[in-house]
Write a structure and sequence with these properties.
The chain contains 13 helices and no strands. With 287 residues, the protein is mainly alpha-helical. It has one domain. The longest helix is centred in the middle third of the chain and has 28 residues. One of its GO terms (cellular component) is membrane.
Length: 287
């Protein structure tokens, strides 16, 4: 279980890093649609090979909802990664785990002291990571913070919906396929609408660039799907709290990759804020 959960954090972290890099060369929506299309093709083959269609039922509507919300959340996330330092954006987006906690509150659960502490720590982390002056003095611009908050909300909703979309391993394959298929349909419609408005969906020389980026796009899409699968398996083996904590370490992978590859440098307050946001996320996960 520990190995599966750590693989989850590694895959999510590298997928985030790869997606952020790609959006610096290609429009974010193009990256989302292309990477999810490649992942959908592979998942479709898995569904056919495993006979997962037999698991179809009412729970699949949760996968459909996740598939509609997912592209918008990923678009906001990739735009945030393209505009701001990855070492700040990724940990802040990890506060998406607060969404399942909020859902539990609505359903009647009451958090313990650790959960309340986690929420407070994450909030302080958001403020510090944004800097004392939003958009000035080295702080993260307001637009980046808004994109990050929207991405966290959407990704948290997707986590909650996917958790309700299946009860078996083959059902998980089908749920992930349906989710990705809806991702492609929703994102593709948005891409078509953007092209109709005259918005650039590819930069100059974009066709050649897109073809050259196909391996990276495939890695991003498949790493995200594989991470969902390894996390689901780790959570089934349990204990779930340990699996969640270990899988939630993925922002550390993204931050280390950004520091090692891009040589990103953060202000002391920003680094502290990112660390507090991650600490708050872990507190929410373990309680």
């Amino acid at each position: 279980m520990v190995a599966l959960a750590l693989v989850t954090s590694l895959l999510w972290g590298l997928a985030d890093f790869g997606g952020g890099l790609l959006t610096r060369r290609l429009p974010a929506l193009t990256v989302v649609v292309a990477s999810q299309t490649l992942a959908t093709v592979v998942l479709g083959a898995v569904v056919v090979a495993t006979g997962a269609w037999s698991e179809a039922g009412e729970r699949l509507w949760c996968a459909v909802a996740a598939g509609v919300i997912g592209p918008l959340a990923m678009l906001l996330f990739y735009r945030a990664l393209a505009l701001g330092p990855m070492g700040v954006v990724s940990p802040l987006t990890a506060t998406a785990l607060a969404v399942p906690v909020g859902l539990a509150l609505v359903l009647g659960e009451r958090p313990g002291p650790a959960q309340y502490t986690g929420m407070a720590v994450a909030l302080v982390g958001v403020l510090l990571a944004g800097g004392l002056t939003l958009g000035g003095g080295g702080g993260v611009p307001r637009r980046t913070l808004l994109y990050t908050a929207g991405a966290a909300l959407g990704l948290g909703a997707v986590l909650a919906l996917i958790a309700e979309a299946s009860t078996t391993v083959t059902g998980l394959f089908l749920a992930l396929f349906v989710q990705r298929l809806c991702n492609v349909l929703t994102g593709g419609a948005a891409l078509w609408a953007a092209a109709r408005r005259g918005a650039p969906v590819l930069p100059e020389g974009g066709r050649e660039l897109l073809v050259a980026a196909l391996p990276s796009l495939a890695f991003v899409g498949l790493a995200d799907v594989a991470a969902n699968g390894t996390y689901a398996l780790a959570a089934r083996i349990g204990p779930v709290t340990v699996a969640v904590v270990l899988a939630s370490l993925y922002p550390v992978v993204t931050a280390l990759a950004a520091r090692g590859v891009l040589r990103e440098r953060l202000l002391a307050a920003q680094a502290a804020g990112a660390g507090l946001a991650l600490a708050g996320t872990l507190l929410l996960a373990v309680s």
